[in-house]
What we know:
seven-stranded parallel β-sheet, 15% strand
Amino acid sequence: MKTVLITGCSSGFGLETARHFLDQGWQVVATMRVPRDDLLPRSERLRVLALDVTDAASIRYCVDAAGPIDVLVNNAGIGLLGALEGIPMAGVREIFEANTFGTMAMTQALLPQMRERRSGVVINVTSSVTLKALPLLTVYTASKAAVNAFTESLALELQPFGIRACVVLPGRSPTTRFAENARSRMQGSIPEAYAELAERVFASWAQQPAGEVTHGHDVALAVWRAATDPSCPMRLPAGADAVALAA
């Protein structure tokens, strides 16, 4: 029985992905900053562990407690809406710590065991905003685009050891906490000069048809394919809007 470790399982794509792998009979290590036992069905194949991907000690504890892992899904991340001119550099660093460096750190922590077994899959969940530029997402997009480039190079680096690396690119999801969390970090990051642009951006998101967005099961299925299908492309869009952009 194979084991998957998924980061950022407290909500959204991570939670849906954990449910899907459980349904498929896998052992699942679902991680989140504050562990909760009420989010997923009770199962002998499920472990919920605390993990802060920006904390080296937390990563070491989690990896030691998890044991052998066949598939790593780097899903944890945070959003940020704002015009670059109004975002403090501390906010920029916070986004990169979680979205970029956290992904690299988790991958680095689990690679030795995969290399020794000469098998494993690393799946990095990024975003379709890396396929089409959008205003007010400069820092977030940069943090995710960096992961795309990292994964492409990583895939070549790990190929001799039988380890695959893939990217899943979800579109915009109205059912995740991204927008809520991103707006909470705005804190004046949209100067008055950008207010009109911001209103247009928010209005366009609100008007996006329900059939042209990404749902949790779209991402879960894409991650599942990346984990189980060695012939799948290295980049997998997830959701109707992401698939359209990729095409």
